[in-house]
């Protein structure tokens, strides 16, 4: 498998692959950082060109995952590497608790240790769910969403695509969050939020309109 990125979140994905015993012929990709060495932790090669990545997909393993946290950049990397022939692959820690009924997890999701996902949950592609977050029943999450450590999304919520939920934030039952929303760490969201806003506080209020524009 190829992991896009060789810093930060890419190291969290490495731990998932270690837990799943999926280290065979694993490589990372970073064509931007001048300070990365030839190998991550002296063991895993770091590719530095799209040509190398394409050859890896053709000759070794077509699967890739995205070790970058920004939702917009993740979507950009998805399109860039699928155009090379890569297959977007989910990485899910075995230390995650996932409901047995009505759960759908999209391609390319990254789900870390300690996450709890209830029944009747739909998660779009490319979404990342960090350590110890809780996704309650009957929740729909869009594409390329970022859910930070310890966040809670309670029952019957809908989370739009490209939204970022900060660490420890709580989305109360039945709340609908739009696309491209930034929810600050520790916020308690009690009512619906439109697209393209930043919200913070307890209870959360809109702090900035057109946050992503």
TrEMBL record:
<dbReference type="Pfam" id="PF17836">
    <property type="entry name" value="PglD_N"/>
</dbReference>
<dbReference type="InterPro" id="IPR001451">
    <property type="entry name" value="Hexapep"/>
</dbReference>
<dbReference type="InterPro" id="IPR020019">
    <property type="entry name" value="AcTrfase_PglD-like"/>
</dbReference>
<comment type="similarity">
    <text>Belongs to the transferase hexapeptide repeat family.</text>
</comment>
<dbReference type="InterPro" id="IPR050179">
    <property type="entry name" value="Trans_hexapeptide_repeat"/>
</dbReference>
<dbReference type="Pfam" id="PF00132">
    <property type="entry name" value="Hexapep"/>
</dbReference>
<feature type="domain" description="PglD N-terminal">
    <location>
        <begin position="2"/>
        <end position="81"/>
    </location>
</feature>
<protein>
    <submittedName>
        <fullName>Hexapeptide transferase</fullName>
    </submittedName>
</protein>
<dbReference type="InterPro" id="IPR011004">
    <property type="entry name" value="Trimer_LpxA-like_sf"/>
</dbReference>
<dbReference type="GO" id="GO:0016740">
    <property type="term" value="F:transferase activity"/>
</dbReference>
<dbReference type="InterPro" id="IPR041561">
    <property type="entry name" value="PglD_N"/>
</dbReference>
<keyword id="KW-0808">Transferase</keyword>
């Amino acid at each position: 498998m190829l992991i896009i990125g060789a810093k930060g979140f890419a190291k969290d994905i490495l731990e998932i692959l270690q837990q799943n015993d999926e280290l065979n012929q694993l490589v990372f990709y970073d064509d931007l950082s001048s300070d990365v060495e030839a190998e991550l932790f002296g063991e895993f090669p770091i590719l530095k060109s799209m040509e190398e990545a394409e050859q890896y997909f053709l000759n070794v393993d077509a699967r890739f995952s995205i070790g970058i946290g920004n939702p917009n950049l993740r979507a950009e990397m998805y399109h860039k590497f699928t155009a090379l022939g890569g297959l977007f692959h989910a990485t899910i820690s075995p230390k995650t608790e996932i409901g047995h009924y009505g759960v759908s997890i999209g391609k390319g999701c990254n789900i870390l240790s300690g996450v709890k996902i209830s029944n009747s949950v739909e998660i779009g592609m490319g979404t990342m769910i960090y350590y110890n977050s809780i996704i309650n029943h009957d929740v729909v999450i869009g594409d390329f969403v970022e859910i930070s450590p310890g966040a809670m999304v309670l029952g019957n919520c809908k989370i739009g695509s490209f939204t970022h939920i900060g660490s420890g934030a709580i989305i109360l039952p039945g709340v609908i969050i739009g696309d491209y929303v930034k929810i600050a760490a520790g916020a308690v969201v009690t009512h619906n939020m439109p697209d393209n806003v930043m919200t913070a506080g307890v209870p959360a209020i809109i702090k900035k309109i057109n946050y992503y524009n």
